[in-house]
Design brief:
Elements lengths: L19 E10 L6 E11 L4 E5 L6 H9 L6 E6 L2 E4 L12 E4 L11 H11 L5 H14 L15 H13 L5 E5 L7 H18 L2 E5 L3 H7 L2 E5 L6 E6 L14 H23 L6
Parallel strand pairs: 3-8, 3-9, 6-7, 7-8
Antiparallel strand pairs: 1-2, 1-4, 4-5, 9-10
Helix pairs in contact: 2-3, 2-4, 4-5, 6-7
The chain binds adenosine-5'-triphosphate.
The site of adenosine-5'-triphosphate has 14 residues, from strand 2 and helix 1.
Keywords: ATP-binding, Nucleotide-binding, Transport
Protein name: ABC transporter ATP-binding protein
Family: Belongs to the ABC transporter superfamily.
Length: about 290
Amino acid sequence: MMREPTPSFQPAGSAGKGAIRIEDVVKIYDPEGAAVLAVDHCSVDIQPGEICMIVGPSGCGKTTLLNAIAGFHSINSGAIYLDGQMLCGPGKPKAEPGPDRIVVFQNGALFPWKTVLENVAFGPVMQGKMTWKEAFEKARHMMADAGLSGTEQNYPGEVSSGVRRRVEIVRALMNDPKVLLLDEPYRALDSLTKSVMHEALLEIYYKNKVTIFFITHDLEEAIFLGHRVVIMTTRPCKPKKILNVDIPHPRDYGVLTTPRFRELMDETIEAVHEEALKAFAAGEKEG
Ligand SMILES: Nc1ncnc2c1ncn2[C@@H]1O[C@H](COP(=O)(O)OP(=O)(O)OP(=O)(O)O)[C@@H](O)[C@H]1O
């Protein structure tokens, strides 16, 4: 089948790692029974250091795609590559989960009985990559870079949800991943906290330049953060439109009031609304 043409993208200063190629991927749940076609011949090329935002109607198959990249479940055909290495594909339906691709979950997953610093340092120590001393030192540096100094000795329950989200990102980055996989990390936040989170995420990103695969239902969030926005079709999921967000980084919230931002919003809303109507007609509600 023909590949969707994708606009070129070259992030400045990228270390050149973290290219994801999703090639003609098909995912069918319960192939012998209900046979739910979740992803249908989906192809997307994500450049190293790109912030790639994925939007689409509820239940269209976005998380399925993320799970396939993370190695949480198998695909039925097609292939996914990371920096040219096949993660899953012919003869290997499921990728191995690995520290090169870290998932930041919607509801967070910090240990409530460990301090924030211990949470951040925990991963590399458990993997035997660092001693506690080394991990604490790196964690303190990364937390300072992310504006989290002063929270180190608090427990997750003692800090705001916004701080917890930032801690989760820093914890993920402790493993020096090539790719961060985020599934609506700010869904539960109020809009003010969300805007602070967006700028904080970009600040962390500008210092780390990992590839970011970010699922959201929030179109403003998608355009504000993303180099590109991939608008998925209603289930089964494949790109309907790929929008190149030609607003230069570094960005701050001032860009929201620019005419170009509004134009990009209009373009996105039109495409998403069309798919939402199809999903609604098919009996699935918009999220
Ligand atoms: N284990 C499973 N078995 C059968 N069907 C599944 C399974 N997991 C997901 N599905 C179905 O696959 C489709 C895609 O689900 P997925 O979670 O990937 O969508 P999504 O786009 O991430 O949705 P949302 O935006 O609501 O999080 C949905 O119709 C869902 O019901």
